[in-house]
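B., you asked whether I could sanity-check this one before it goes into the benchmark set. Here's the sequence:
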Amino acid sequence: MSGKELLERLETFFSSPGLTTAVGEFMRDHIAVFSVIDPELEQPLEYHNIYQKYLSLMEQQLSSFLTTEGLVQEDLVKAITALRDSDAGQSLCIDYLMACSDYLEFLRLVSDFQSCAQMQGDELLETSAE
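And here's what the prediction gave me:
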């Protein structure tokens, strides 16, 4: 399988209802914990604990994808590196994976979810506060 084909399958996987629901539910369950996120400031330990849970969720999801596709992690790393180096633009899979590889990227992802929740009338924030 070519790197391009792998990335297309990965993007399809990351856009699938199973994964987007899992990430959405995760964020819904945890988003209210996060107040204003300033990466320049020291973050509460609770934020890092939630990050660790996000890593576990994504590791499970990626493991399932790799098993289904008959691939190993090195195949995925090569394809993602090629995409990043090609400057082919942002994709959903890159956003989610970057949030796994870097704590500040995770905080940006949380901030994006918070912004979406605010645009939707705080529906996510209200749901997670219950």
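One thing to flag: Helices lie at 3-15, 17-30, 45-69, 73-86, 92-101, 103-119, 123-129. Otherwise nothing jumped out at me.
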